Amino acid sequence: MEDLLPKIQELLSFYGLKVIAAIVIYIVGRWVAKAVRNFLQKRMTKREVDKTIISFTTSLIYIALLTFVIIAALAQLGIQTTSFIALIGAAGLAIGFAMQGTLANFAAGFLLIVFRPFKAGDYISGAGVDGVVEGIQIFTTHLKTPDNKAIIIPNGKLMGDIITNFSAKETRRVDMTFGVSYSDDLKNVRKVLQEIVDMDPRILKEPESMIVVLELADSSVNFAVRVWVKTEDYWGVFFDMNEAVKLRFDKEGISIPFPQTDVHMVARA
After folding, report:
1. Full set of structural domains in the chain with CATH
2. N or C: which end of the chain has fewer CB within 10 A?
3. Backbone angles phi, psi at 128, to 5 degrees
4. How far is CA 42 from CA 55, 106, 116, 218, in A?
5. What would the pLDDT profile of 28-68 be if each residue is shown by its tens digit?
6. Looking at the DSSP assignment, which residues form a beta bridge with residue 222?
C-alpha cells in the first residue's frame, strides 16, 4: 500500500498536468475560433455580403477551427489522433466528390456576391440568357425575362460564362441606322436627323451625338445615328427615335427604300 501511494501521486502529477494542458488548449482554442468567426462576420457584414453566405461561411470556418482545437487537446492527453485525422480527411474527400457540383455553385455564388459583377435589379446577359436579376442565392441566380419568365441559373455556369451587365454604367449609347434613297439630299437628311436629336431632352449633350454616312449600300445610303442617354432612357429613346424619323421623313419627302435589307438597328435591353 505504501508503494502504491507514490505511484498514484506520480500518475496524478503526470496526467493531471496533461489534463490541465488539454483543458487550457480547448478553452483558449475555442475562444480564438469564436474571435475569428466574429471578426469575419463583421468584415463580411461591412462589405454587405449576403447574410446567408456570412452565416454559412463563418460557421464552416468555426467548425474547422474547433475540430483542430479538439484534435490538439486529445493529442495533449496522449491519445493517438492520426486515425482521427485520416478519418476526417477521407470523409471530407468523399463529401467533396459527392458534392463537387454543389460546392462549385456555392463557391461561384460566394464570388458573385463578394466581387459584385451585378446586383439585384440589373439587366444582364449570361449563360445564354438575358434578364433582370431578382436575387443571388447560395447556389443559383434568379433572373426575370422581359416577358416575365423566371430563369434560375446555377452560379457555377453563370460564373464560368461571359457576363454582360447592361445596367452597370449610368449612360449608354443608342446605335441606330437609317437608310435613305440615293436621290435624296444628304445634307438635308443630316439636318433633319440633327433636329430630331436636338428636340429630345433625354439625349445627352455630352458625349456629343454622331450623325454620319455609314455605308453606300446597294439600294440605300445608310446614316448611322449614335446618341448617348441615361441607361434607364435607352429603350424609350430607341423606340421614339424610330417613330420620329419615319414621321419626319414622310413630312420632308425623304424616301426610305423598301425593303431595307441593308438597314439594321443594334440594340439590347
Report:
1. 4-98 (1.10.287.1260), 117-165 (2.30.30.60), 171-252 (3.30.70.100)
2. N
3. 85, 5
4. 11, 21, 19, 65
5. 888 988 888 888 888 878 877 666 567 667 777 888 888 88
6. 179, 215
Q: What's the whole-number mean pLDDT along residues 254-261?
A: 68
Tell me the torsion sign for CA atoms 179, 182, 184, 189: positive
Side-chain-side CA neighbours of residue 256 (13 Å): 16
Which cell is 62 given? Answer: 468555426
The mean predicted confidence, pLDDT, of the chain is: 81
CA distance 176 to 193: 11
Write out pLDDT tens, residues 216-246: 998 899 999 999 999 999 999 999 999 999 9
Cα–Cα distance measured from residue 117 to residue 113, given in angstroms and rounded to the nearest whole number? 8
Ramachandran area for residue 203 (φ above 0: left; ψ -120 to 50: alpha; else beta): beta
- For β-strands 129-136 and 150-154, DSSP reports them as unpaired
